[in-house]
């Protein structure tokens, strides 16, 4: 019996062993891979069809190896130490293991009773990380990412400000609600305006100052003008780490303006939230504890696999009014079940991989990894300036926006520099437009593996691309 059982388990064991082999090979050999490949769409499509014809069964090891080959050969490798792109980090090994175990057990996070351990794991993680933001939050939940967290905040704000909205919808409101964010804020807020039914005209774009921070004086003036036009100010969104330049808005001043206007104050700290774990960087987030809600993405600064967003909120009743529902096949929403305070119903146990990442190094260890990225960014700024480049943004976060006199003079186009550099495959940066007018290059240190040797390659590739 035991021998037959071992034979039955052999395919499963071999499949996971193939995955483990790929994990080790990727970790050891990631720097040997090109950061990006540029195969035509048809070539990639043919490769997928050849690997998985779906006309016969495949053994698990064969599936694992074929999939590994496709992911290795046809991707921008965002876990590469020389990927200086968007906020897609290298991932902690413990987080990847946690995510795999969640896939195996498949806990259902809609209700506590179906996934007691996973639900308490999430609550534990949210309490610990919420405390790092400077207060005890009355409500907190995991989300698929920052877009869902921002949407959750806006719906909570609607439910709190307009009790009649729950039943009557937007037609029952006495005036059109308005959302306020800077021109540098994340464009998920455009989706929020659409998904809430407010329309993009309700998203009011506030000017920024010379450092690309939301201008509190301009905000207060716009709110007054909007009241005269018939708007009802609903939500002020500050950003702690803008996507373009990593800028942190003046949160204390924005909290003051929001309080005077009677607005919900939301802080989108999807990227910058991890600064709360770094003593040197945490002062940049001063004022975040005054927010009504905060977005923080673990799949950015905490180096866990996508997606893993978080929302921290001071108003559990508002979330209940926005999301609670009653049905005979679910436990009562009044008991605080997870489904009653989130957009999602059935939900993956997102927080388990976050717990595993934090367990591997502790909260202090997570902060140290982010601090390491910030130090590499500081070093990149030094080396860019020393070699004739100009740094254009001001932020303590590991985001560097820069240009060159040749670019300013029009002798080189930023898009051409980026295309040349990315096309060579040794590093990856992006083009950015700052303040709606300044075209620049952008390098974000997203990997805790990035070091001085990776900066050597980046600077060499920048010079080659510039001089081409």
Stretches with pLDDT under 50, minimum 5 residues: none
**What is the name of the CATH topology of the domain at 99-357?**
Aspartate Aminotransferase, domain 2
Order of helices and strands: HHHHHEHHEHEHEHEEHEHHEEHHEEH
**Terminal residue distance:** 69 Å
- Secondary structure class reads alpha/beta
CATH architecture of the domain at 99-357: 3-Layer(aba) Sandwich
In quaternary terms, these chains amount to single chain
Shape: globular
What is the CATH H-level superfamily of the domain at 99-357? Answer: Type I PLP-dependent aspartate aminotransferase-like (Major domain)
Largest sheet: 7 strands, mixed
Q: Could you tell me the mean pLDDT?
A: 93
| Widest beta sheet: strand line-up | 1-7-6-5-4-2-3
Number of helices, where a helix is a run of at least 4 consecutive DSSP H or I residues: 16
Describe the protein's architecture and organization.
By secondary structure, the protein is an alpha/beta fold. The chain is built from 16 helices and 11 strands. Among the domains are: 10-77, no CATH class; 99-357, Aspartate Aminotransferase, domain 2 (3-Layer(aba) Sandwich). 46% of the residues lie in helices and 13% in strands. Helix 8 (188-195) links the parallel strand 2 (176-182) and strand 3. Helix 1 runs parallel beside helix 3. The longest helix has 36 residues, at 351-386. The model has no long low-confidence stretch (mean pLDDT 93).
């Amino acid at each position: 019996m035991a021998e037959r059982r071992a034979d039955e388990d052999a395919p499963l064991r071999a499949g996971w062993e193939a995955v483990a082999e790929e994990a080790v090979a990727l970790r050891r050999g990631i720097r040997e891979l090109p950061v990006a490949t540029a195969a035509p769409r048809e070539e990639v499509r043919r490769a997928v069809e050849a690997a998985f014809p779906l006309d016969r069964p495949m053994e698990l090891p064969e599936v694992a190896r074929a999939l590994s080959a496709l992911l290795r050969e046809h991707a921008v490798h965002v876990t590469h130490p020389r990927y200086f792109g968007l906020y897609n980090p290298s991932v902690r090994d413990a987080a990847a293991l946690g995510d795999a175990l969640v896939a195996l057990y498949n806990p259902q996070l809609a209700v506590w009773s179906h996934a007691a351990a996973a639900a308490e794991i999430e609550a534990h993680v949210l309490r610990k990380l919420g405390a790092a933001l400077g207060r005890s939050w009355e409500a907190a939940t995991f989300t698929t990412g920052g877009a869902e967290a921002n949407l959750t905040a806006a719906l909570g704000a609607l439910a709190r400000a307009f009790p009649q909205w729950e039943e009557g919808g937007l037609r029952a409101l006495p005036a059109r609600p308005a959302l306020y964010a800077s021109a540098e804020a994340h464009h998920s807020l455009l989706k929020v305006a659409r998904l809430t039914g407010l329309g993009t005209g309700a998203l009011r774009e506030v000017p920024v100052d010379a450092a690309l921070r939301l201008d509190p004086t301009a905000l207060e003036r716009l709110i007054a003008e909007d009241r005269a036009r018939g708007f009802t100010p609903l939500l002020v969104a500050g950003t702690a780490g803008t996507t373009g330049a990593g800028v942190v808005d003046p949160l204390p001043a924005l909290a003051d303006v929001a309080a005077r206007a009677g607005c919900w104050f939301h802080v989108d700290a999807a990227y910058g939230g991890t600064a709360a774990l770094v003593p040197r960087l945490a002062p940049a987030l001063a004022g975040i504890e005054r927010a009504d809600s905060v977005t923080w993405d673990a799949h950015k600064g905490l180096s866990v696999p996508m997606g893993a967003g978080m929302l921290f909120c001071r108003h559990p009743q508002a979330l209940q009014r926005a999301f609670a529902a009653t049905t005979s096949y679910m436990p009562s929403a009044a008991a605080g079940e997870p489904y009653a305070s989130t957009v999602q119903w059935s939900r993956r146990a997102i927080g388990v991989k976050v717990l595993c990442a934090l367990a591997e190094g502790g909260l202090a260890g997570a902060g140290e990894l982010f601090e390491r990225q910030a130090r590499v960014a500081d070093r990149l700024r030094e080396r860019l300036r020393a070699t004739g480049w100009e740094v254009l943004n001001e932020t303590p976060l590991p985001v560097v926006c820069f240009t060159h006199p040749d670019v300013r003079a029009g002798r080189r186009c930023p898009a051409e520099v980026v295309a040349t550099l990315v096309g060579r495959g040794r590093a990856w940066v992006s083009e950015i437009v700052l303040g709606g007018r300044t075209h620049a290059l952008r390098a974000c240190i997203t990997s805790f593996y990035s070091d001085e040797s990776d900066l050597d390659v980046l600077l060499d590739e920048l010079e080659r691309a510039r001089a081409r």
